């Protein structure tokens, strides 16, 4: 388990990139970290991977402090947003570099995966496209067989087919090594398919976090119309996150939180009652609105 | 202690592998240039006794850029965020990264230094024309391995402290060059001043017998305190990092080596602590803190302000304007290069100008205020004259008395001496009169004899006679050792150049030079002369060129002026007969008269011919053979014309 306690980091002693951040990420899960540009996602990943040192607070993995912890880092692999490869190195060379440092590194995995993806392991990485470079970085990270994988802007530059393939590889890694994956992305739809949990980072802190199933099963978008005139107060028994009425039809976002809204709304004999699925993006927007944040300023 | 935790060989191998081409080039270029340098020496066909300075010519070039390239290869990742992410996220901690890279780098420099030393050693073994004593090779290895390691460690520290390459280079240069810089400036100040200094003499043993101030009030004031005028410059003894001082006289000195070792350990430790605490987000800029940035920029102004000082004193008002504008421009350019931005320009200008005024004032104080004060030396502990160190108080006083005495009608010449007091060295331009000259020559004579007597001839590295080298054999060593008691029979001052053999031995990190009379024993004389004669004959037999023969000036009037002039032509025309004569008359006796014939053929080759009168007869035969040749006649005529003109 990853435990982040009271973590703070500033780059200029004035403006905090992360401020008293607390978070727990359970094992064998894929945790999606979302947030606006400059929210501190990359900084958080760099602190977890002990690239940067936190000003205050700790990051514990399996109860051990991660900072400069060589043995713990054997179980961690990080793929940053801005990739680095040594000049004139091939994928094979990079894999050898990883192999020199990671005890459980699987060279066959690199060769086989590169084969599937039709990557020439002996070609210079500098001649690869942006997407191919990311494939190389992801292959090397997965081949470490690390228990914790950290991906910053994971699928940036990958085409849909390759993206789907890597999602499959991540699932395999999870089932094979009980891997915990933390990934950041701007694309909520992308995370929706793969993540178990989501955390929203805003101004250096986790604004809220939840598992995706709960988010999706608790919130509904309902279109309703009643015979007689109605307004928001008519539905006072419900926890309404958003209410919009156009003509005689109202669109309501409901956070059920254990309450059976359908039964209640049917008892009002509606003319129209439609339950529509919410995308993760919509879930976030309405949650944020409910918390009083202007969505545009967050995501 | 787990060694793997300190030195991760896999990480080091990978780190080297990524830059193997560049490293091979950089580490190979110096040995390669050394080989080329040695080949040039060999092809010159001269016999070469190599000094540490000779061996170091090429190695000197790499003193900054080789350790810098190595350091950048190993630690350069800290300058880019991408590479920081890549390396620092890997399962290796900061301590291991620093120690692995530092020890690994030092190992590479060790191999590099060994390769260079081996190259010199092999060339010395294979080619007779190159002489490099083993002790010199060891000194070369120690000096350059430690110097390169020192610079490497300092660069590692500079990289740990800074956020980009250019700033780390600035920090490196400040750390390693600031002391040599002050040394050079101090020597410059001393040497540029031609003022009179003084020496204190409180007892009659050193007081001059005649001394005049010629109305100079300052001189009269000093005289009241028993201070007498003496022309000298203070010689700042430089023993910080010898290889970094351009003006350094002895490249190898133990103090410098020890200082470099101690400083390497200190800087290495500070570098380690700095690296462990380094904020890895500090990259692509000079320093995280603007105050440190300003401080370092301020330090770089020290040499810049010296230039402005020179401009101001030589141009006056316009110099101030040029300097102020120059400092402001420099300040902005420095910010742009190291930080890629100019923040708070007004503050930057003010800080730079304050620093400029401070440093300018310091230079002004040093050059124009302190320089005006003449100094007086007290307590001279030793005087060094032509490498002879005199420590006897009575002798020192006698020399001083003689130097200080001003007698207008006496012949004298000036020569350099070094005076050493408790903590300083002074280069004295001493006026030496005839009496002192005789006295010093006598001292030198005795000193040389004593040195020759006490010398361990088993340690001879190189022998020169008549400008060419003589191979060192056990026989020669034995002869020198067995006959060293005869040295007392010779007066060194009267020895002709052709009567001296020069012996070199590399001891205590420098060559000791001894002069030994060749006529120390008949056997030694034979050994050396016959070797040289054979060399001469071999050269004549093998060469297809026409060498230039010269009969050495000979004072018994056996040969005429005309014969000296036609000597080359006559011998060249009778080369084979001359060779035969030399072969048949190769026996020399040191008690008999002899003469020398020299040819210049890249190197000087000398033949010693016994019985000059017999050779004269032989020469007349040669002359007879060519007397009708047109060229000979022309030569004789042209000589006669010159003679009649004179």
Please tell me about this protein's structure.
The complex is a heterodimer of chains A (299) and B (646). In chain A, helix 4 (107-116) runs antiparallel to helix 5. Chain A is elongated, with a radius of gyration of 23 Å. In chain A, a hairpin with a 2-residue loop joins strand 12 (240-246) and strand 13. A 6-stranded mixed beta sheet of chain A has the order 6-7-8-3-9-10, with helices on both faces. A 4-stranded antiparallel beta sheet of chain A has the order 2-1-4-5, with helices on one face. Chain A has 299 residues and is of the alpha/beta class. Helices cover 33% and strands 29% of the residues of chain A. Chain B has a 5-stranded antiparallel beta sheet with strand order 5-10-9-7-8. Among the domains of chain B are: 1-178 and 245-280, no CATH class; 455-520, no CATH class; 524-645, no CATH class. The radius of gyration of chain B is 32 Å and the shape is globular. Chain B is built from 21 helices and 17 strands. Chain B is an alpha+beta fold.
Q: In terms of topology, how is this protein built?
A:
The complex is a heterodimer of chains A (299) and B (646).
Chain A: E1 2-10, E2 16-25, E3 30-35, H1 41-48, E4 56-61, E5 64-65, H2 70-73, E6 76-79, H3 91-101, H4 107-116, H5 130-143, E7 148-152, H6 160-177, E8 180-184, H7 188-194, E9 197-202, E10 205-211, H8 212-218, E11 219-225, E12 240-246, E13 249-255, H9 261-266, E14 272-276, H10 280-290, H11 295-298
Chain B: H1 3-6, H2 9-17, H3 20-43, E1 48-49, H4 52-75, H5 81-88, H6 94-126, E2 130-131, H7 134-161, H8 165-192, E3 197-200, H9 217-224, E4 227-230, E5 232-235, H10 254-277, H11 290-315, H12 317-339, H13 345-369, E6 376-377, E7 382-385, E8 388-390, H14 393-404, E9 412-420, E10 425-433, H15 434-454, E11 462-465, E12 468-470, H16 474-482, E13 500-507, E14 510-517, H17 522-542, E15 549-551, H18 561-573, H19 575-584, E16 594-601, E17 603-610, H20 612-626, H21 630-645
Parallel strand pairs in B: 1-2, 3-6
Antiparallel strand pairs in B: 3-4, 5-10, 7-8, 7-9, 9-10, 11-12, 11-13, 13-14, 15-16, 16-17
Helix pairs in contact in B: 2-6, 3-4, 3-6, 4-6, 4-7, 6-7, 6-10, 7-8, 7-10, 8-11, 11-12, 11-13, 12-13, 17-19, 18-21
């Amino acid at each position: 388990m990853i435990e982040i306690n009271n973590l703070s980091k500033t780059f200029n002693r004035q403006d905090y990139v992360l401020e008293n951040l607390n978070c727990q990420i359970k094992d064998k899960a894929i945790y999606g970290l979302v947030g606006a540009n400059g929210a501190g996602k990359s900084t958080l990943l760099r602190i977890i991977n002990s690239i940067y040192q936190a000003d205050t607070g700790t990051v514990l993995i399996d109860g051990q402090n991660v900072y400069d912890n060589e043995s713990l880092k054997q179980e961690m692999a990080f793929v940053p947003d801005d990739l680095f490869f040594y000049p004139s190195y091939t994928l094979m060379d990079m894999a050898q570099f990883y192999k020199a440092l990671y005890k459980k590194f699987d060279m066959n995995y690199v060769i086989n995966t590169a084969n599937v993806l039709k990557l020439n392991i002996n070609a210079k990485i500098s001649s690869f496209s942006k997407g191919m470079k990311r494939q190389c970085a992801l292959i090397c990270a997965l081949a470490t067989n690390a228990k914790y994988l950290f991906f910053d802007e994971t699928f940036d530059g990958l085409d849909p087919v390759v993206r789907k393939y890597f999602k499959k590889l991540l699932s395999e890694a999870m089932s094979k090594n009980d891997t915990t994956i933390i990934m950041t992305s701007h694309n909520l739809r992308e995370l929706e398919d793969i993540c178990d949990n989501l955390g929203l980072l805003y101004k250096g802190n986790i604004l809220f976090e939840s598992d995706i199933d709960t988010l999706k099963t608790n919130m509904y978008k309902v279109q309703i119309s009643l015979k007689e005139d109605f307004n928001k107060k008519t539905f006072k028994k419900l926890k309404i996150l958003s209410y919009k009425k156009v003509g005689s039809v109202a669109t309501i976002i409901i956070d059920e939180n254990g309450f059976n809204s359908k039964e209640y709304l049917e008892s009002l004999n509606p003319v129209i009652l439609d339950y529509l699925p919410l995308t993760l993006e919509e879930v976030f927007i309405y949650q944020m609105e409910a918390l009083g944040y202007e969505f545009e300023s967050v995501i | 202690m787990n060694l793997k935790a300190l030195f991760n060989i896999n990480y080091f191998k990978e780190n080297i592998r990524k830059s193997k081409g560049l490293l091979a080039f950089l580490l190979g270029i110096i040995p390669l240039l050394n080989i080329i340098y040695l080949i040039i020496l060999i092809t010159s066909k001269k016999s070469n006794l190599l000094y540490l300075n000779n061996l170091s010519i090429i190695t000197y070039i790499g003193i900054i850029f080789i350790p810098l390239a190595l350091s950048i290869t190993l630690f350069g990742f800290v300058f880019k965020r991408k590479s920081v992410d890549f390396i620092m996220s890997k399962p290796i901690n900061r301590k291991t990264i620093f120690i692995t890279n530092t020890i690994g780098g030092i190992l590479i420099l060790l191999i590099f230094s060994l390769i260079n030393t081996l190259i010199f050693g092999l060339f010395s073994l294979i080619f007779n024309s190159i002489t490099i004593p083993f002790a010199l090779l060891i000194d070369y290895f120690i000096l350059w391995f430690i110097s390169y390691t020192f610079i490497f460690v300092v660069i590692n520290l500079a990289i740990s402290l800074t956020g980009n390459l250019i700033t780390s280079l600035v920090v490196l240069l400040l750390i390693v060059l600031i002391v040599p810089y002050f040394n050079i400036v101090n020597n410059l100040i001393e040497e540029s001043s031609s003022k009179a200094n003084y020496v204190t003499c409180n007892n009659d043993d050193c007081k001059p017998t005649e001394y005049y101030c010629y109305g100079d009030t300052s001189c009269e004031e000093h005289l009241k305190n028993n201070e007498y005028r003496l022309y000298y410059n203070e010689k700042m003894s430089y023993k910080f990092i010898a290889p970094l001082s351009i003006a350094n006289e002895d490249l190898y000195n133990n103090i410098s080596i020890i200082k470099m070792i101690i400083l390497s350990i200190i800087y290495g430790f500070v570098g380690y602590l700095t690296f462990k605490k380094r904020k890895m987000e500090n990259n692509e800029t000079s320093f995280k803190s603007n105050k440190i940035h300003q401080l370092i920029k301020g330090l770089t102004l020290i040499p810049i302000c010296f230039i402005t000082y020179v401009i101001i004193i030589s141009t006056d008002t316009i110099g101030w304007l040029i300097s102020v504008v120059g400092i402001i421009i420099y300040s902005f350019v420095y910010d742009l290069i190291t930080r890629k931005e100019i923040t708070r320009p007004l503050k930057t200008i003010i800080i730079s100008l304050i620093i400029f005024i401070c440093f300018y004032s310091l230079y002004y104080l040093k050059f124009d205020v302190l320089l005006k004060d003449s100094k007086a030396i007290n307590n001279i502990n030793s005087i060094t004259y032509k490498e002879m160190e005199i420590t006897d108080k009575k002798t020192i006083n006698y020399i001083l008395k003689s130097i200080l005495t001003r007698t207008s009608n006496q012949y004298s010449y000036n020569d350099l001496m070094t005076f050493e007091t408790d903590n300083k060295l002074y280069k004295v331009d001493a006026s030496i009169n005839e009496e002192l000259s005789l006295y010093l020559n006598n001292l030198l004579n005795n000193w040389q004899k004593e040195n020759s007597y006490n010398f361990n001839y088993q340690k001879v590295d190189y022998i020169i006679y008549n400008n060419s080298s003589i191979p060192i054999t056990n026989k020669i060593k034995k002869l020198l050792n067995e006959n060293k008691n005869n040295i007392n029979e010779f007066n060194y001052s009267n020895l002709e150049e052709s009567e001296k053999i020069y012996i070199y031995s590399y001891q205590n990190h420098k060559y000791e030079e001894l002069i030994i009379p060749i006529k120390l024993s008949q056997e030694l004389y034979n050994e050396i002369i016959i070797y040289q004669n054979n060399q001469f004959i071999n050269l004549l037999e093998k060469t297809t060129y026409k060498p230039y023969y010269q009969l050495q000036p000979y004072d018994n009037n056996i040969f005429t002026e005309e014969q000296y002039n036609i000597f080359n032509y006559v011998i060249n025309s009778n080369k084979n007969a001359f060779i035969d004569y030399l072969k048949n008359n190769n026996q020399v006796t040191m008690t008999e008269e002899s003469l020398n014939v020299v040819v210049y053929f890249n190197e000087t080759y000398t033949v010693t011919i016994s019985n000059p009168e017999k050779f004269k007869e032989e020469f007349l035969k040669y002359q007879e053979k060519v007397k009708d040749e047109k060229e000979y006649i022309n030569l004789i005529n042209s000589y006669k014309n010159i003679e009649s003109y004179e």
